[in-house]
């Protein structure tokens, strides 16, 4: 049994369910990516799994305990999350924002210890923003700000890190830097990484395990080879994909694709999601 898993979780806003009776295990000390079309429940699943939002039914279990009953500081020492659109950095310097990652370890008046400062400096170093430590976050570019938020998540020193589209606002080089950093943290420190990615080839290149969602339900979960197939991508994204091999990693990659049009697309769209998933499984 995995350390972290959901059991028949349903999540929604008001009366509208986004994720329905979803059960999934997150592999320990691996990189998991979640893919799927906009609005399918990727971010909602991340938020509920990290207790940012509540779930209507079911349970999220970490180390045998239901996270809804877990002490907040204790939980924050086990998992960190970088939201899709982090907010609340107005007036703070880079170093001050990253220091917030040390909150679960602070006692008394919340003063930073020598160990806290060392961890903060390490997080700034590995994310390439050490020179910005005393600069206001508001003065940075979008890509630089994204790296500050990632540094804050790293400073939390958790065994599990969730990231919702961590490459947003970054150019291609910085996207690769961030993903390679997460891969290094996984390989060298055994961190469990769970992230939402829109780029299918990045998801396949860096993931050990992929969860493909559509309409709040899992279409397929498994290895890159099991998920990055024309049939799965057809069900999830309604595209006709050509799958090949990355010449550098030998991982599957989407070489090109066409949008499915006409009667075939309309027929699939007219079938209720649970029936369509069952019929095409």
Secondary-structure blueprint:
Elements: E1 4-13, E2 16-26, E3 31-35, H1 42-49, E4 57-62, E5 65-66, H2 72-76, E6 79-82, H3 94-99, H4 114-126, H5 142-155, E7 160-164, H6 172-189, E8 192-196, H7 200-206, E9 209-214, E10 217-222, H8 224-227, H9 230-237, E11 239-245, E12 252-259, H10 263-270, H11 273-279
Parallel strand pairs: 3-8, 3-9, 6-7, 7-8
Antiparallel strand pairs: 1-2, 1-4, 4-5, 9-10, 11-12
Helix pairs in contact: 4-5
Descriptive terms for the model:
Rossmann fold, 27% strand, alpha/beta, globular
Order of helices and strands: EEEHEEHEHHHEHEHEEHHEEHH
Briefly note the structural class of the backbone.
Answer: alpha/beta
Supply the CATH architecture of the domain at 4-78 and 158-223: 3-Layer(aba) Sandwich
Question: Which CATH top level class of the domain at 4-78 and 158-223 fits?
Answer: Alpha Beta
Q: How far apart, in Å, are the first and last alpha carbons?
A: 25 Å
The tally of strands reads 12
Q: Considering DSSP H and I runs of 4 or more, what fraction of the residues is helical? A: 25-40%
| CATH domain topology of the domain at 4-78 and 158-223 | Rossmann fold
Largest sheet: 6 strands, mixed
* Mass-distribution shape: globular
**Physical arrangement of strands within the biggest beta sheet:** 6-7-8-3-9-10
Helices, by number, come to 11
**What would the average pLDDT be, to the nearest integer?**
89
Name the poorly predicted regions. Answer: 267-281
């Amino acid at each position: 049994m995995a350390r972290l898993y959901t059991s028949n979780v349903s999540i929604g806003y008001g009366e509208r369910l986004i994720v329905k009776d979803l059960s999934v295990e997150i592999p320990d000390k691996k990189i998991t990516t979640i893919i799927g079309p906009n609005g399918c429940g990727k971010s909602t699943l991340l938020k509920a799994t990290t207790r940012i939002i509540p779930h209507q039914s079911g349970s999220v279990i970490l180390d045998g305990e239901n996270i809804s009953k877990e002490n907040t500081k204790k939980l924050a020492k086990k998992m960190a999350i970088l939201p899709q659109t982090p907010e609340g950095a107005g007036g703070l310097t880079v170093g001050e924002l990253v220091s917030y990652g040390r909150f679960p370890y602070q006692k008394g008046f919340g003063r930073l210890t020598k160990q806290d400062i060392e961890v903060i400096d390490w997080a700034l170093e590995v994310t390439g923003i050490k020179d910005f430590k005393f600069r206001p976050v508001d003065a940075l570019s979008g890509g630089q700000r994204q790296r500050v938020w990632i540094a804050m998540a790293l400073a939390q020193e958790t065994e599990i890190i969730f990231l919702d589209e961590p490459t947003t606002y970054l150019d291609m080089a910085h996207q690769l830097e961030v993903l390679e950093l997460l891969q290094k943290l996984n390989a060298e420190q055994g961190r469990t990484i769970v992230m939402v990615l829109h780029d299918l080839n990045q998801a396949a290149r860096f993931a050990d395990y992929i969860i493909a969602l559509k309409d709040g339900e899992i279409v397929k979960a498994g290895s890159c080879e099991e998920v990055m197939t024309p049939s799965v991508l057809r069900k999830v994204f309604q595209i006709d994909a050509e799958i090949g091999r990355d010449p550098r990693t030998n991982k599957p990659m989407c070489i090109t694709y066409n949008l499915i049009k006409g009667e075939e697309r309309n027929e699939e769209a007219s079938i209720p999601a649970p029936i369509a998933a069952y019929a095409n499984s």
